[in-house]
Model the fold of this input.
Amino acid sequence: ENAVRKMKNQPLREHRHVQVELPVSAWFPGSWVPPGRHKIETYRKLSSCQTPSELNDLRGELEDRFGPIPPEAARLLDLKELQIAAGQWQINEIRLEDGFVVFGYLDGLRVRRLQNQLGKRLRIVDRKSAYYVAQAEIGDGEGLLSELKAVLQSN
Done:
């Protein structure tokens, strides 16, 4: 895709990966997406989603092809949704440390804008890290996932 964009003198699409380390289990179960080609293709499509709209289209396609989305797959789609939202804030890492959610970030201006929205719940500690005080229990992976999605989608 970027080769075509380069030939047309269009801006290249950057694909930044957001590393997320939360205590949740998420995958496409073999009983839902058959192993082999279908499963590989499904993970590839998920990986290539870069916007909420693309992810919603994939979610609809998966339901049409494989039926109701099981909890493990729903969590995987939620994790991708979190990655997309984090990427929009130029956050490249989300992890837990000492009772906080740590955001590794690339753009100080954007994270300061996020801090303005969140107030004292987000503490910028250096030029690369900000600590978020979650309302959900740190051990509650699904609760954290839900809270972080809501926080980062509020731009």
The longest strand covers residues 91-97. The chain is about 50% helix and 15% strand.
